[in-house]
Design goal:
The structure is a homodimer. Chain A has three domains: about 80 residues, Arc Repressor Mutant, subunit A (Orthogonal Bundle); about 150 residues, 2-Layer Sandwich (Beta-Lactamase); about 100 residues, Heat-inducible transcription repressor hrca homolog, domain 3 (Enolase-like, domain 1), CATH 3.30.390.60. In chain A, helix 1 packs across helix 4, helix 5 runs antiparallel to helix 6 and helix 8 runs antiparallel to helix 9. The relative contact order of chain A is 0.13. Chain A is built from twelve helices and ten strands. Helix content of chain A is about 45%, strand content about 20%. With about 350 residues, chain A is an alpha+beta fold. The interface between A and B is large, with 37 and 38 residues. The structure holds a DNA duplex (30 and 30 nucleotides).
DNA sequence: TATTAGCACTCCTCTTAATCGAGTGCTAAC
DNA sequence: GTTAGCACTCGATTAAGAGGAGTGCTAATA
């Protein structure tokens, strides 16, 4: 168990290093407000904290830097919510004041504001489309051979795909088909659609309409392709400003990661609600070795609706980010709640 | 007018610098294949070319580097198509062999392949949605107060937006409204929709349905918001590998530019067909001072369908990029042509 | 007259050495 | 238990010097 003084020193080191990005030394620390011990005392405590694994040195005669374990302890035990300036809170709230708001628009702007306020990179995972339920099918013919299939979900999301009609497929056939689909499949959640299409609709379609299989196949691909929810970024280039990423190789790995949407998904620990923090190697990703990710999900009622991740260096301002994220997720949950009811 | 020998030397310098990124010296050049003059002769010619503005020195005793004017001349007069390896051509063609192809999918993958083959950054501007014509309107009610408005265009593109219904707006009202819209506005190009909505539809709607204005306003915002076509990127982080962007400040400016979709649009010189090259300051953008942009548009029949831009350092392999871009635009034009007919 | 060899000079780049300073660990005194 | 003092470490910064690729100019050459 750490003594009070050790806690205080650990906290001071993390707080200082978060701001300065420089290893913090005993003498420097002893001059800080609230620290009443001498540099020598602090040196002794630092040596102990290092032995316990909370601190590291970059070289033999450098100051101390928090280790991953140190950050973890800080985050778990020393993190106190920060008071955010009213101006910044207002900036977030202003997003939601406009009346006619498109979900996608809100999400994009949220990502931008968060990255601006934090100076880190924001990744916003939109509401999971897979959980929406089919509200309506629609097939609109374009030419003799092509048409657009449209699925509208209960949350107002629209998926669509152009498809090739089998030759001889008439507008009348299309109408019949749409009717059958709507009769049988309204209310089915998208993740269930592939199975239900086959079990509930396929045989009926086959018996009433010629060559309907190829269209069903196209419909299947709408949902299967769409199994990733949409990802929005804010402040991708903010990382370039962090001194730990002056190393171009690291930077490149990170940028490449951001470009691979499916890999980005793994950064979110889905299923967990509330705010989650993963530090450095806890992310299990080489490019994220020097990064921490703070994720939070926002909800509507019982359903999970989406998640925000803020990515910064391990030396990130956890206090501030956690608080901002809290404000933002509350606002988002509320906004989507209003939309729904 | 430049002598043959001057042309040859200018060409050799550009070709060499494009590969090495190092200023090229007279002695080094004299050893090159095809160069029969001595280093001293080359020095004299270089001095002349510099005086004419085609070459520059980085410092008094360095080798020569092409100036913007030098690149411009090279591009205008010395650029000969390069033979691309059959493997690479095959890689491009393979994209278009898969049968079921979604326009968006093709475009995304094209951007990726191009950036991979060129090692530069690719920006792909999708077909200009504004020129599509309305094929069908649809309004799908979600709850008592909300609905989704959908516009399908003749090219199979789907735009949608959730909207709030005026209180007391019945399903019957919706149906009437959709009928009126489809009667009056099918065939109207999207860019014309705002005007036509007001002139053709608004008065009829008003006289038949109560409180329909607010919905019309929402419809308007679908198209007005969508006035930028969609932008797809490939290999954003490739620029990090270019030695001229080891400077983080420059890199940051570039990344920020990429993130601003509306600014990116200005990089395309719209209206011009064929391949266009803009070198360094010709782009009129601070972040692009050290970059060249090669743009090409691909067509379907008479209509412009989209454009590709490849962004690299001014010291870019123009020869290779131009050829690759040619292969790609031809393939794209053909692919979209097939889709349409 | 056009070309080329020779040479002094420039200036970037890479090494090596020296200095500085913030920080540490340890010992001894308080 | 705390703190002052001191020798030591090591990264960062600066300075000086060597090396090398390149240039411009002059004079010799074909």
């Amino acid at each position: 168990m750490l003594t009070n003084r050790q806690l205080q020193i650990l906290q001071a080191i993390v707080d200082d290093f978060v701001m300065s990005a420089q290893p913090v030394g005993s003498r420097q620390l002893s001059k800080k407000e609230g620290i009443t011990y001498s540099a020598a005392t602090i040196r002794n405590e630092m040596a102990d904290l290092e032995e316990l694994g909370y601190l590291e040195k970059t070289h033999t005669s450098s100051g101390r830097v928090p280790s991953e374990k140190g950050y973890r302890f800080y985050v778990d035990h020393l993190l106190k919510p920060q008071v955010i300036s009213t101006g910044e809170v207002a900036q977030i709230h202003s997003l939601f004041e406009k009346q006619i708001v498109e979900a996608e628009q809100i999400i994009k702007e949220s990502a931008n504001i968060l990255s601006e306020l934090t100076t880190y990179t924001t990744i916003l995972l939109g509401p999971d489309v897979q959980k929406h339920r089919v509200k309506k099918f629609q097939i609109v013919p374009l030419t003799e051979e092509t048409a657009v299939a449209i699925i509208v979900t209960d949350n107002g999301h629209v998926e669509n795909r152009t498809l090739t009609l089998p030759s001889g497929f008439s507008p009348h056939d299309i109408e019949k088909m749409v009717n059958i689909l709507n009769d049988r499949l309204v209310g089915v959640p998208l993740y269930d659609l592939p199975i239900k299409l086959q079990t509930e609709a396929l045989s009926v379609l086959k018996s009433h309409i010629n060559a309907s299989e190829s269209i069903v196949r196209s419909l299947l691909s709408i949902t299967s392709q769409q199994n990733e929810s949409k990802v929005y970024y804010g402040g991708k280039s903010n990382m370039l400003n962090q001194p730990e990423f002056h190393d171009l190789a690291k930077m490149r790995m990170l940028m490449d990661l951001f470009d691979k949407e499916n890999q980005v998904q793994t950064l979110f620990n889905q299923g967990n609600h509330g705010i989650q923090i993963r530090i450095g190697s806890e992310n299990n990703h080489l490019a994220m070795e020097n990064c921490s990710v703070i994720t939070a999900s926002f909800l509507v009622g019982e359903e999970q609706q989406g998640a925000i991740a803020i990515i910064g260096p391990t030396r990130m301002d956890y206090r501030r980010v956690v608080t901002l994220l809290d404000v933002m997720t509350n606002s988002l949950s509320q906004a989507f709640f209003d939309k729904k009811h």
